[in-house]
Amino acid sequence: MNEQLFASRIRQALDESADRLPYRVTQRLERARLAAVARAAAATPTVSSISGGAATVSMPSDDRPSGLVRLLSTLGPILLIIVGFYGIAAWDDAQRAADTADIDAEIVLSDDDDVPLSALADRGFGVYIKNSRQ
Amino acid sequence: MASRQELSEFLESVERRAFKQAVYAIRDDDSALDVVQDAMFKLAEKYEDKPAAELPLLFQRILQNVIHDHFRRQKVRNTWTTLFSALRPASDDDSDSDPLESLEVEGDTRVGESAAQIVERDQVLQAIEAEVQKLPTRQREAFVMRYWYEMDVAETAAAMGCSEGSVKTHCSRATHTLATALKAKGITL
User: Fold this and answer.
1) pTM exceeds cut of 0.90
2) Cβ pair B2, B52 in contact under 8 A
3) CB nearest to B44's CB, from A17, A20, A39
4) DSSP codes of every residue in A87-124
5) Which residues of chain B from 91 to 130 reach within 8 Å of chain A, CB to CB?
6) Which of A23, A37, A60 sits opposite B65 (nearest CB)?
7) DSSP state of B102
8) Which residues of chain A are modeled with pLDDT < 50?
9) CA distance B45 to A39
């Protein structure tokens, strides 16, 4: 038996099977069809372009956004958070460096040698220097 | 541009095959009905202005897209279901369901056939459908469109988004797989 003949026998069997669908299914299909036709009647006609060339079949595309847009919408917020954390860390480092620089400058410029070294190492000393400048 | 009458006639001519095609892919009657309905709505709403000759190809493409969408949604739903299934109580029996609701009424009366013949034919049809269902997705799509919908190779290739050569290969493999499987079951066509 060749391929075409075999396929036609299979088609007959599938047609027979489709004709034996339960009543519940055929009713539901009929209701869906009537609803679809009613929707077609309600839908507004869309503008179609007129071309003089050969007729072409335009295939329906997915209504979903493209893969790149979906990827960006997923990764965008995550990237934003990572950049935010990085920014906060960089700003904090800069603040620490500035505080340390202030303390170093105070040590170098200070004429008073009575200040113990442990006081210079204390974090509160930086705050004291800032306040005393203001 | 297809008239409402043409659209209705077209949908009536393909609805049963579309349902079966969806069942082969999804393996659930209710979901298949939803998919076919969704495809009908999309065709009617968006492509009503197309010529009637283009409707079969458009409908096939829409149906394929809707089936793929169904699988994507099911994948997401399964992820959440698996996540929360541990929180559900173990006693999940169907004690409230009414058996009469699931009882199918045989719509057709096949006069002139003996019970044995009807049962035998039903078994053969079920076996054929089961083998069609078992085919790899692309082979099944190609076979169904090419031989059941009687679309030509170019139309099938356009609907599947592949080359004509691929369609021929898929069809040939599907036919050989079906022939081998049915022969192994002792079914002659």
Assistant:
1) no
2) yes
3) A39
4) HHHHHHHHHHHHHHHHHHHHHHH---TTS-HHHHHSHH
5) 104-108, 121, 124-125, 128-129
6) A60
7) G
8) 46-55
9) 6
